[in-house]
Fold:
Amino acid sequence: MRPITPWEPFAEVQEQVLHGEGAFLVTADAAGRPNAMTIGWLQLGTVWGRPVAQVLVRPSRYTHGLLASGEFVVAVPLGRMGEELAFCGSRSGRDVDKFRELRLRSAPGTAVRVPLLPDCAIAYECRVVARAELRPEGILDEGIRAKYYARGDLHTLFLGEVLATWDLRE
Amino acid sequence: MRPITPWEPFAEVQEQVLHGEGAFLVTADAAGRPNAMTIGWLQLGTVWGRPVAQVLVRPSRYTHGLLASGEFVVAVPLGRMGEELAFCGSRSGRDVDKFRELRLRSAPGTAVRVPLLPDCAIAYECRVVARAELRPEGILDEGIRAKYYARGDLHTLFLGEVLATWDLRE
Structure:
């Protein structure tokens, strides 16, 4: 596993997220039990002079509560793990231990208590430094409102400082 | 001027933003008069299945009101235009017509009514699809709170769908 800049794999990661099968958003509960949900959206960039990865999670999701721990890992399997992504995108960690069920391999994070997924290609270790709530009046595009928010449950934006980025293929 | 994907110049753009002199956030008022502020922060990625550029602007800024037009351009001068960036970062468009003062060259946007800056290297044409307000309880990092928010004026996050991305050097 090789340390890289957060920008290095960006094009590949966005292709996987936008046109591929998504990525894992990994969190852990107070006892250290990990969970993974599937995300199809991810932003990356600079805020407050720091590299920041931003994920959007609906309040109804199990992961939303786990993010109160203040840490997450975005693990990106470039062109692999389609079955695991499908499972993690359709089941809730409230009902099933996804790591056990899928026999997901994990490795300790180096900067956070959330594990990495060594079978992925890229991992971003993040600490939540800020969050912001989407509110109905903030959704300005009617297509987005109709497609994603007909039932409310508007996403929270979690801004995570990227503490470490890894290429796990090497 | 060559159309590119939003991801293509990301590493260069982030280096300019994070370690360099920043980028221009260009907007226009109701009469079409353009303005540019200097930004040192920029996020890019996928949200709602669309490419999104996210900028943060304090409510006190002249640009904050102009963003009500629903459109902006992020114009990135890789390693150039340091003087112009310094000027646009220290003066308000309320007091001075920056385009006239700096004799900034402009070219019509192709997807928005905000102009491009043909002397920049990269330009993202964006339509604001959502916004979210940072609130005091959402700032979880004490260092960020102390350094950026001692006087309040918490940033609004503007999420702009990227309608076109240009390499202006060719």
